[in-house]
Amino acid sequence: MNGFGRFIPLLIVVVLVGVFLSVMMSDRNPKEIKSVMIGKPVPTFEIPNLFDGQSALTDARLRSGKPVIVNFFASWCLPCRAEHENLVTLASGYTVDVIGIAYKDDPEASRDFLDELGNPYAAAGVDRDGRLAIDWGVSGVPETFLIDGEGVIRYRHWGPIVGDSLRVQLLPQLEELQ
Amino acid sequence: MIPEIGHFALAVALMLALVGAIVPHVGIARSDARLMGLADRVIYGQFLMALIAFGALTYAYVISDFSVLNVAANSHTAKPMLYKISGVWGNHEGSLMLWVLTLTLFASAVAWRGKELPLRFRSRVLAVQSALIVGFLIFILFTSNPFLRLDPVPVEGNGLNPLLQDPGLAFHPPMLYLGYVGLSIAFSFAVAALIEGEVTPLWARWVRPWTLSAWMLLTGGLVLGSWWAYYELGWGGWWFWDPVENAAFMPWLIASALLHSSIVVEKRDALKSWTILLAIIAFSFSLFGTFMVRSGVITSVHSFANDPERGLYILGFLAVVVGGSLSLYAWRAPKLSPSGLFGMVSRESALVLNNILLSTFAAVVLVGTLYPMMLEATGGAQITVGPPFFEFAAIVLMSPLIVALGFGPLLAWKRGRIGRAGQMLIPALIVALVAFLAVAWDSAGGLLMTGFGLGLALWLIVSVFLELFERLQLFKKPAKVLSRMKALPRATWGMSFAHLGIGVILLGITVSEAWTTEKLLIMAPGEQAEVAGFSFRLHGVEPVAGPNYTAIRGHFTVAEDGQVFNQLFPEDRVYTDQVMNTTEAAIAPIWTGDLYAVIGESAGEGKWSVRLYFKPFISFLWLGATFMIVGGIFSLTDRRKRIGAPKGKRNKSAAGAA
User: Fold this and answer.
1) Domain range spanning residue A73?
2) Are B616 and B511 in contact, with CB atoms under 8 Å apart?
């Protein structure tokens, strides 16, 4: 190892350190799985309404010509509780409908959850066995989707909308659509 | 008060380490023996301070002093004492304390036992070691202080992650840390040798026991981890190619290579520059593992809570240590001129082959581990690299290694004749071939790999014995065997044991992978299931309460030919101080394999989901690893290596003390 060879280990390390640095600076969450649904139309579905006596929730509700936000939640999910305040802010302060889908949750418990914390949802459906969530590629609750007026998924927020992620991530995407 | 003393001791240790990292170099530059000699005393001081600090933290854990944030976050009064103590190193801050304690302990051992080394060289080594200690102490004091106080004081602690409350896991991390830190000594020797521009056989003789101890500890740590996964995770797997497992496996591979290449340096004064490079890389991989679990760049079951500031610090430290030492290498390597020449067919060449294969495997594991992250960082798709990739690489790279392993020890130094060695191994080849054909014949097609694996394992085992018989001249002079056995150096016994261990592990892997029987069932009490000729009867399921958990416990009896010969009590636990569900598989090792039962959720109507396995020969994995460690101990206690070298006994007491 007398010629150029003796520099090779050093070069490899320099490259690796550079890659690690860029990964760490990019505030990527390694637990996050990218959605393959971006740019695709929402799956067709028809699920019962969370509130008795109201008509079933279908994908037609997501093709109203205006952007909507779809939020998968559950009463048993602690991070959902954490992001709830931001959903209320979103629904009251910005002209956008938030549609809630209760994931693998007892409808009674979901309603109690909304009674307790306030109901930000313009409409809410029940995905009791989690089948719809599979169609949407949801990896866990909470997960939030931004749908444009034509029913195409434009953005997916993985995990709770807490801290500055409403202001920094979700709102700019929404404003772009509006 | 005690935590403040600990904190203060860390600060003093940092001062001492700074002195120890700089003054010896000044002493050497001025040829001042007094300044060089300071290195020893400063190291002892660092060890004393690290011991005080570690003792203070342990004390806080033992008395459950929840005014210390670290204790409150990781301990609980209801925890058994063993886990209160293992909780000390079961978290980010505490594990770094253990790093520093062992760094200073091992450095003190070098100072104490290293009087035969030239003063100049010894103080260089200790100065490099002190510089590493400085890096770790700054990290602790400025980003990860374990002595931070909490106000108001909580009445109860947060509890230790229930998965960590297990005897296997109480000692798995500290053994790995001890192994990593053992490699730091080889690293410091390598850097000192580069600064001095000289590598001598004495250097190798010194580095080898340290590499060997580190290798044994890494082997032990890896095996404990995989044994834990086997009985705790509840589906009978024992290795997952998880990024962090890989991070511990790579230093092991490189340490194995270093172990063999330093023999060549010691005996033949060759491969010097390569051996230095391996010593640097081995420790670099250890640091890299520490970086991986703490930086958040990769998801793994092993990750500590991530903190970007810490990740950046370790990355910086890594860049300085690894980058610095490799720059030094690039600059000084040409000075390490090769002297010992050897032929294509020789013991040296066999060891070079060993090194090439082990290092290539480590490189492949590194690529597989980092590729998903690299791809995503460069805007590509999200992928995972799974077991098939690593298993393929293992088969392709390790098979030739095992074939060569049969020949290697029979080749002469400098110039060997492969023909003669081959002749002696014909019996081994025949045995292997027979086993291979038997399996291939019996179960056409699907089991080809099984036949191959069995063939390799038997080839290795038989050739280890043949080589030993050859040394003992068992067939030529049977009468003198006993006296020859006594005369055989312990290092030779050690080699045979370790190589045998690899054969035994391979046998265990092959047989258990091929013939494991697995059943997933819904069972009601009174029902019976047949698994691999054994009948498992579920007698009942009852609730039980432990000190900090509640559980349901199944009761199985196992019968063969109507004779009940074993009972199994698998549990499904729910811990209360951090709510978490863990499975405790019930495992009964019998001669031919392990009976393995897991109880899961209730399926309603008094029925339970259960998993029953029979895993033939799986104990050979742990047995083989034990052989490897025993081989290491034999080699370490070889009289010829004691000259100025730390003894195995002391290394063991170091492991016990930590």
Assistant:
1) 32-177
2) yes
Q: Quote helix, strand, coil % in chain B, to nearest 5.
A: 65, 10, 20
Per-residue three-class SS string for B316-345: HHHHHHHHHHHHHHHHHHHHCCCCCCCCCC
Closest chain B residue to A12 measured between Cα atoms? B323
Does residue B417 sit in the same domain as residue B447? yes
Q: How many structural domains does chain A have?
A: 1
Size of interface A-B (CB pairs under 8 A): 66
Nearest to B323 among A13, A20, A33 (CB): A13
Nearest to B299 among A6, A27, A30 (CB): A30
User: Is the residue at B647 inside a domain?
Assistant: no
Chain A residues closer than 8 Å to B284 by CB:
13
CA–CA separation, B181 vs B174, rounded Å? 10
Q: Which residues of B touch A2 (CB under 8 A)?
A: 333-334
Return d(Cα B453, Cα B303) in angstroms, integer: 34
Task: Report residue A26 CA to chain centroid gap.
Answer: 20
**Domain termination residue (choose one: B376, B407, B422):** B376
| Residues of A within an 8 Å Cβ radius of B | 1-2, 6-7, 9-10, 13-14, 16-17, 19-24, 26-28, 30-31, 33-34
Chain A CB contacts of B327 under 8 Å are: 10
Q: What is the ipTM of this complex?
A: 0.78
pTM for this predicted structure = 0.82
Chain A hits for B312, Cβ within 8 Å = 24
Q: How far apart are CA B100 and CA B104, in angstroms?
A: 6
Would you state the structure tokens that stand for residue B13, as one six-digit string? 């240790």
Identify which of A1, A10, A34 has the shortest CB distance to residue B323.
A10
pLDDT along chain B (658 residues), means of 10: 92 95 90 86 94 95 90 84 87 90 93 84 93 94 89 80 76 88 93 88 86 92 88 76 86 93 84 89 90 70 63 88 92 75 73 87 89 76 76 80 82 68 66 68 62 86 88 76 79 90 91 84 87 88 85 90 88 79 85 87 80 89 93 82 43 36
Show the DSSP H helices in B63-197 as ranges: 69-74, 81-86, 92-113, 119-143, 167-196
CA distance B435 to B455: 6
Domain count of chain B? Answer: 4
> Which residues from A are below 8 Å from B329, CB to CB?
6, 9-10
Residue B66: give the domain boundaries: 1-160
Amino acid at B443: S
- Residue B457 and residue B508 share a domain: yes
Buried b (16+ CB within 10 A) or exposed e, A118-144: ebbbebbbbbbeeebbeebbbeebbbb
Name which of A1, A24, A33 is nearest B312 (Cβ-Cβ).
Answer: A24
Tokens standing for residue B280:
């640097």
- For residue B75, what is the DSSP state? -
Q: What angle do CA A99, A103, A104 make, to 5 degrees?
A: 155
Q: C-alpha angle with apex B105: B195 to B108, nearest 5 degrees?
A: 55
B201 lies in the same domain as B150: no
Query: Do the Cβ atoms of B330 and A7 come within 8 Å?
Result: yes
Nearest to B377 among A9, A17, A19 (CB): A19
Residue B153 located in a structural domain? yes
Same domain, B473 and B553: no
CATH number at residue A99: 3.40.30.10
Tokens for B336, please give them: 């390490």
Helices (H) and strands (E) in chain A, counts: 6, 7
Burial class of residue B491 in the structure, from the number of CB atoms within 10 Å of its CB (0-12 exposed, 13-18 middle, 19+ buried): buried
Does B318 contact A9 at a Cβ distance shorter than 8 Å? no
Question: Is the domain of B406 the same as that of B491?
Answer: yes
Cross-strand bridge partners of residue A158: A143
